[in-house]
Amino acid sequence: MLLVTVLVIISFVWFYNYNKDPYANTATVGVIYGRRVTMVEFKRGLRLFDVARNLMLFDLLQTLVGQAQSLEQARENFVWNSLVIQHAADQLAITATDEEVIADIQKLPAFQTSGVYDSSKYNMFIERVLAPNGMTALQLEDLVRDHLRLQKLKGLLGTSVTATPAEVRDAFERLHTKTELSVVRLKYDDFKAAVKLTEEDLKKAFEEQKATLKSDELRKVKFVAFVLPAEDKEKKLAPKERMEEMQKLADKAEQFTVAMTEKDAKFEEVAKKFGVEVKESAPFSMHEAPEELGKSDDVAQTTFERLTMEQPNSDAVTTEQGYYVLQLTGITPSQPMTYEEAKPKLENRMKEERAQEAMTLKAAEIRQKIDPELKAGKSFADATAAIGVTAEKIPAFSFAEPPPGITPELRMIMSQSAELAENETSPPIPTQDGTALVHVDKRQPVDETKFTAEKNTLAQNLSRSKRDSVFEQWLKTQRDAAGVSTGRS
Hints:
single chain, alpha+beta, Triger factor/SurA peptide-binding fold, Chitinase A, domain 3, 3 domains, 4-stranded antiparallel β-sheet, disordered N terminus
């Protein structure tokens, strides 16, 4: 305990002095409720996101992250939405007592052994996770207090939100009704292979489109990498070990980006302090990040959409194997292409367009020929056979019991079929490798005994989902009202 106390005091002193850095305090990342949010406050929120992940506070994370499309966006949403929740709870006088906070901390799985609170795990967490990041037990308590206030807010807003019996019945039928499908598939590659283009076709298209045929803009960056060693990639760390290692890398990457916000910070000098090597990429396009940057789409997107020569430094960019911090060093503008340069791209584009058009027309033709056969009383299998097309039979399934070995494409087909009536054929549905026509052969009646057994649980789950939806919309409205605007100044 003495060791933990000393570490906490040291980290507190460090954090206090860090906040006194005049440049850190004047760096602004955004505005909320008319007040500035400093880099220090924002980075602290990002670290709390990582703490919440370590503690598996999934309800807090899922609610505050929202519909984020990347880890970077998720972390930013967490910070801004946390501030919104804190403000709203204060306005509504929603609090969490110290006793509630302590009880909730002791219930966290990270601090338990065999289902019982283990103070040694709590102390170890403070020592190994919080203290090295300039945080104390107070920040942990604040995080848990936010979690409790969030739960109370949800409860307040969702008091009158419940699922109706009709909604419960409809949800059960959607989950458990077994459906028999037939599918006619058309493969895109077959149509593309059949497209024939002449030199005259290509030259004519070039003359018509040459004003828009330009080379890709290229960019290059200096970067430092905080990534798992190559040997760790090969041995495939266990999930817990991997999470711990990724957390360490994230912490280092975040500390590096904070150091880069200091006045007159130089990339190479900061890298030297952190003991990491600065490398420079070859020029690359937005659509293809180089091997040395993990071929990461997020790295390429950040380079092209976030960085400028005036603001060249990135935040930590998350990839599958770790984190990169970038500095934009050069831009090669796009240039008009000659015919020979444009020919491969132009040829591929024209083949794709003509293949797609031919496939769409063929699917429409097949459906048009099938409809009269079905109206004459034929089954879908007989109707397709009559026009020389093969239909694939999908084994009976429900969404609660999907067919074994289900593929993403089959899952999409199943999803599309949910809106079709029995004996109805879909319009052409895009698939991973082409398009498909889907026909519902039969829908089997549900098991009423099973419905009686499951309806109460389903009603609870639906009600919870509806409350979450109401809260999500409320949070969006509150965030809009908060006037959140981002952008460092």
